[in-house]
Write the structure tokens for this entry.
Amino acid sequence: MDKKKLSERDICTKFINPAIQEAGWDMHKQVREEVFFTDGRIIVQGKLYTRGKSKKADYILYYKPNIPIAIIEAKKNILPAGSGMQQALEYSEILQIPFVFTSNGNSFVFHDKTNSGKDLETELALDEFPSPEILWEKYLKHNNLAEPKAKEIVEKDYYVDTSGMKPRYYQQNAVNRTIEAIAKNQKRIILVMATGTGKTYTAFNIIWRLWKTGLKKRILFLADRNALLTQTKNGDFSPFGNDIMHIIKNRKIDKSYQIYFALYQGLTGTDEEKNAYKEFSRDFFDLVVIDECHRGSASEASAWREVLEYFSSATQVGLTATPKETKDVSNMEYFGKPVYTYSLKQGIDDGFLAPYKVVRVTTNVDEGWRPTAGMLDKFGNEIKDRIYNLKDYDKTLVIDGRTEIIAKKITEYLKATDRYAKTIVFCTDIDHANRMRQALINENADLVAKNWNYCVKITGDDDVGKQELDNFTDVEEQFPVIATTSKMLTTGIDTKMVKFIVLESNIQSVTEFKQIIGRGTRIREAEGKVYFTILDFRKATNIFARPDFDGDPVQIYEPGPDDPIVPPDEDDKPEPTVGPIISPGDEKDPPDITIPDPPVEEVKKYYVNEVQVTVINERVQYYGKDGKLITESLKDYSKKNLEKEFSSLDDFIQKWTESEKKEELIKELADHGVLLEELREDVGKDLDDFDLICHVAFDRPSLTRKERADNVRKRNYFGKYSEMAQKVLNSLLDKYEKEGFYSIEQGSILKIKPLNEMGSPVELVRAFGKNKDFEKAMKELENEIYNIA
């Protein structure tokens, strides 16, 4: 047998598999081959989309299910044994795997991340591959987990889901790092996971493993929305069974359960006797999990902090998507450095979260409006003479014309895309949400006449709106379509089908901004939700330009006794609002309440209805490959990316010609930040992808598909073929002219009209001779179309 002629898969089957099996690895329980651990980033091209390349490991070896310990990259025998090491190391960093191997069937190259000495990489014979026990003991020792009690904790099994659902790689990382931290007696732990990445499912797996070990027998799960408690108990946590789980309501305490769910405001109050949590002893709970822990726990006086300090003997795990300090976020100095972080950018790049584009709309009054001397508002109040701008609108000054034109613009986008696309409009306060609802109802009167709840206001003061919340978040329910709100939908609500996020609120906190954007990040590919659009009327998306948008969490500010509660960060001043205020005994979800500025004058808000408002600028921006918005022109941005991919025009033409499937080449370009559909629209010409790239990257004169097809017809190169072959080629050329080259390079092209009406695929191929002759003719047609010599 000549190894040099074997495929990579043959090397795996004949040499790598026997070697690892001989070392004691269970091929069914501990070894997975060809593991796709990402879905591939969603690449939006106009109204269409495709998936980028997903990441695939040749082998992942697990000590136990969901506890990966080694990765193997296989290569053909004609390559050196260590040739795949850099790719394997890249994957091992993502998967947080300590032991990395590569092999070409002759030997293994072993990269040991637990070894800080000279032998970081060594070559092993095939029969020297280490056993699961050897690698596991090395890992435990390196991470100070070798002590029997710690080892018992980290080796406890995950929940086995009979439906086949398994944690994604980042959820495994989050669970395993948390369990390891607890095994080493760490008492305060925080996980940072972007909205839509399954924090509650991750929390379930953490709790299951700790509960099954008996290490954590009584657990408290804290949240800030009633809907979250029921959703969590009946959803991700259902494997525990209802007999051991209990939702604390009306401050009534029953100590006979093991897993408790509670609203933090349902446990606390301003009166000492209202603090229901004190009916539990301080050491009653072994574990406290705080969902969305950015809410309200930075302040010493917050309800969250009050409960956490009372149960200080318990291990406390905080979950958040936005660990950045503002007036109401979690305190990193309390929890410590995150044991694991999975950002929005990572989620989009992996294909687990939806990408987005931003549409910024500016009106003629956004930069400033000044009333004439003595001007009265529509209620007869004299308007204070000063310049008003975006920070004032709908907070201290209402311009009806601006509200109306924004409602018109929102409706315009829905009509141009999908009038039934779920939409959230974030407003300044409840009054603004109500006026925006009225304006949107007037713009969509035709649909509202048929369905009264096409557009609703969902705020804490509106019982009808809150009743519609479940319908709005239900994937199966069509109505409501549009929800106007102020604060209520910013966090904790799972809005899977939201496709439009409208920013009509002055958001200055990065934390609040990320929470709002998180309402659109869920992917529902089967239902057609693969990306979302941000309509920005307040310039809030300027925050995207910040370098820390999806970088590592920053140090959290904790004020001292004499320090201001708001951190002195000039670039991130929070709005003068506070979080939910709950009166004693109030068990409802926190209402949208804004505390106004100290009174300066009797009139808190002016209402003006005689100002002409128009749109003066509208700009579409796209999400780039680096996780930020493209701020330069799309043409310049694309040119730079194309120049990175192709050193010259000849280099591009060569790669285009050599590519068997042009569509695959274009997908690869999209994965590297070249958005051809958007670029075609920006250039303003209906160009073939070949011409578009040549024109943008290399300043070549461009031809339309019709012009290229006509040029081929003029050259009459078809004359050398039989009559039937000429008909086939002419038909293919017509198809290219109408639909582009991808339509004719499909394997099934001969089965599609009008070609299938000329004869069977076999008969059509026979007109050229043999199959290789047909393939040669197709290649010649391609060269003729693009005039490639």
User: Anything to note?
Assistant: The two ends are 42 Å apart (CA to CA). The longest strand covers residues 56-64. Confidence is low (pLDDT under 50) at residues 296-301, 325-331, 546-600.
